[in-house]
């Protein structure tokens, strides 16, 4: 009998402990609120345009939502669309209630005046650029080459059409050596939101980065042309002593086919863009649509980041962040290990700076310029040249 009582007591204790554990395991946790690409709860909107705010709620099963503005409840859905015709800063509160508790998040929405020439995206807007305004590469081994898609383009207009067609197929467009550039536009303005705003696809891979400087512009005068102020997007090398501002290189048209192209820079240096008949046999690497005997390209120059490694050859290392066609672990996505696909770098409009290095404070952009940022060439691999496969607005379609 004593043994039976002891066994019964043990079973009861076990049941009680099991029941207690079950009760603890089944107690729902309190919800928590966060927002993608927004850590401080600050949002921006244009006067008269809607802004949809979508919270990310953890432990939000069966949640009830309450949005209040100025002490008045204005919404009970999981998302809230704010809109005001009046500029200013508005205090918005989100409360989420579940069986596990309650979470409250204070938000602010700053309504800014509509820029006169701002073109808002619509549901039909394209993410990809839809116009090439200028394509002026430096001489390079992929310029004029049939394997790179050229079909004897001999006017600036034909060159721009070539570049747009290539990017439409996610095929590379080479910018040639230092200073070569491409200017693209979109069917809408790209709005500056938290986090990355647009992307540039290149063909970098580990050990092969050919970094391009990125610039942005607003259509300030509203004429639909990239003839206003360019703002450089600062990257990891911005402001370093070895990064040269206002660097320029002049390239000279060769006198005969199949020869090197001479260059001189504004630092008193000179050299050659080497002709490599073993790999690229077109008559000349000097752009066929540039008829002048020479032309000069200017911009920011990054320090050479290439090293010779025994058994490997030249290794073109990546910079930390902030450049196109750059195998960066911080702003790069996708893989291109075989050198045939695309690797994408993401860019933030917030990194745009004025000529003196102060923030440009742009709320939107209309044009993007990519320019080869390194001046480096060897007789074995030729020049380093930034390649561009596409430029896309990361917000379009959201």
UniProtKB/TrEMBL annotation:
Q: Which SUPFAM superfamilies does the entry mention? A: PKD domain
Tell me where in this chain the PKD domain is found: 58-112
InterPro entries found in the cross-reference section: Ig-like_fold (IPR013783), PKD/Chitinase_dom (IPR022409), PKD_3 (IPR041696), PKD_dom (IPR000601), PKD_dom_sf (IPR035986)
What is one Pfam family matched by this protein? PKD_3
Which superkingdom is the protein from?
Bacteria
Q: Which UniProt keywords apply?
A: Signal
Per the UniProt entry, the signal peptide is 1-23
| CDD domains for the chain | PKD
In Swiss-Prot or TrEMBL terms, this protein is called: PKD domain-containing protein
């Amino acid at each position: 009998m004593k043994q039976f009582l002891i066994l019964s007591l043990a079973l009861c204790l076990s049941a009680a402990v099991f029941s207690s554990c079950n009760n603890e395991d089944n107690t729902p946790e309190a919800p928590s609120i966060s927002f993608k690409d927004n850590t401080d709860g600050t949002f921006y909107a244009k006067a008269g345009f809607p802004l949809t705010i979508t919270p990310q709620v953890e432990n939000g099963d069966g949640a009830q939502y309450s949005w209040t503005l100025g002490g008045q409840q204005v919404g009970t859905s999981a998302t809230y669309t704010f809109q005001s015709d009046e500029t200013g800063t508005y205090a918005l509160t989100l409360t989420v209630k579940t069986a596990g508790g309650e979470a409250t998040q204070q938000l602010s929405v700053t309504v800014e005046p509509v820029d006169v020439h701002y073109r808002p995206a619509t549901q039909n807007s394209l993410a990809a650029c839809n116009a090439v305004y200028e394509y002026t590469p430096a001489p390079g081994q992929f310029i004029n080459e049939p394997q790179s898609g050229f079909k004897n383009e001999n006017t600036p207009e034909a060159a721009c059409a070539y570049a747009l067609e290539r990017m439409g197929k996610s095929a590379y467009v080479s910018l040639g050596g230092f200073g070569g550039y491409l200017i693209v536009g979109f069917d809408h303005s790209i709005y500056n939101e938290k986090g990355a705003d647009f992307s540039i696809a290149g063909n970098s891979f580990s050990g092969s980065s050919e970094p391009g400087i990125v610039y942005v512009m607003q259509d300030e005068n509203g004429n639909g042309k990239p003839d206003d102020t360019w703002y450089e997007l600062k990257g990891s090398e911005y402001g370093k002593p070895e990064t040269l501002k206002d660097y320029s290189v002049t390239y000279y048209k060769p006198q005969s086919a199949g020869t090197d192209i001479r260059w001189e820079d504004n630092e008193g240096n000179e050299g050659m863009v080497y002709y490599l008949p073993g790999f690229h046999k077109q008559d000349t690497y000097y752009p066929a649509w540039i008829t002048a005997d020479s032309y000069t390209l200017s911009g920011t120059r990054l320090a050479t980041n290439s090293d010779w490694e025994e058994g490997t050859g030249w290794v073109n290392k990546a910079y930390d962040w902030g450049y196109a066609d750059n195998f960066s672990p911080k702003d790069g996505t996708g893989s291109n290990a075989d050198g045939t696909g695309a690797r994408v770098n993401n860019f933030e409009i917030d990194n745009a700076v004025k000529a003196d290095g102060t923030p440009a404070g742009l709320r939107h952009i209309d044009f993007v310029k990519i320019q080869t940022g390194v001046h480096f060439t060897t007789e074995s691999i030729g020049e380093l040249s930034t390649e561009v496969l596409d430029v896309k607005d990361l917000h379009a379609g959201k």
